[in-house]
Request: fold
Amino acid sequence: MTSPATIPPLTGTITVEVPIERAFRVFTDAFGSWWPAEYHIGQTDMATAILEPRAGGRWYEQGSDGSQCDWGRVLAWEPPHRLVVTWQINGQWQYDPDPEHASEIEVRFSADGPEQTSVNLEHRHLERLVDGQALRDGITGGGGWSSLLELFAKAATNQT
Reply:
């Protein structure tokens, strides 16, 4: 059996003018405050996106009707420096419960000083996804992770 060809990872980097602890908190605890509501896969409009603050936690959306739709799981929870989650959304923009089909998103937070943080994101192992190249193309066509990191940066600098 041959393994699928490697699909290059998606990356994004941004510097935010907030302390590292705040950057991590806004990225994780306030995830639903900056993630665009139109970026959802559930059957109903998304009310919020939730990232449970622990290894083994869920990463999911909650619909306006209270329904929930998983996106993946938290693999590593290392505040305020590192977060790794599975991305279990395939190239048809549907949740895939098989962990063998999961890609990974690693986010690293590095203090550049007391009031400045670099945030580096890598979305890797896209070849594990069903239709991973289609998903990569869709994310890239939508501005990629860089556009989402810009939304995060605005939220981080505006929240207290």
